[in-house]
Amino acid sequence: MRLEFFLVILLSSLGLDAQNCNLYPENSPCRKACLILESANKYPQGSKQSMELCTKATSLCPELASAWHSLSVPYLKRGDYYNWRKYLDKAVALDPKTYLGYRGACLFEFLHDYESALSDFKKLDLKKSGHLGFNPNGEYNLRIQKGLCYRELGKVDQAISEIKMGIDEGKAEGGVGTYDYLHLAVCYMSKNQVDSATHYMELQLPQYPNFPDTHYYLGLCALGHGDKIKAKTYFEKAKMLYPQNHRKDPYVIMPDQIFLSDIEKQLRSLN
Asked: What angle do CA 5, 8, 12 make, to 5 degrees?
């Protein structure tokens, strides 16, 4: 993928907004606010200096959506969702095409508010043709998260359709997401369609061979086929891989994420 894409993902994951302050007239309040926002990025995110500068930027130019977004991010990471929403909603109102997807992803990942997240993704779908974009850290095509919202709300068939669409988008753009096939496989597992689940989990394996979750779910697929010996092999591999390769996001627990206790429970059941 292009260097610009990775730069956008990096900035987004840090909660920063790439600015082109030259878009605003020289000496205008919004040009000054934009430059102040750039200077805020020199300080640690959420620090007193950074927050004061972000607040000053919103005062100088209340229509600068990126300033409201930058002001909101530290509250999200602190778990202060009330103030996060208060400020981010202003950014969304000013620039929905840019911030609807971001808000939806955060509602999905941090708050597990699947109805509100799905509402944002649907609104974004009406504003964009095709690709919806990516979540803040770049791991997920937002269409995959939209599909997972459907699944968490009990609409598995709609989830499968949306996730497959997201996978097709990934293929067209040079790569399927790290966990896309895994989530699709789990959708089929929820419908007791073990053959389809196994098929997609086997497609998941080359995406991230050392990911313990994949081996765990392959173990469940093997159990679904009545093969306890094969299942035990997968669970043992998952346990071996877990210490070095499990998800380590300090902020969120994602759907279908497994823990060491899940693996050990399955192994105990087979002993």
From this structure: 140
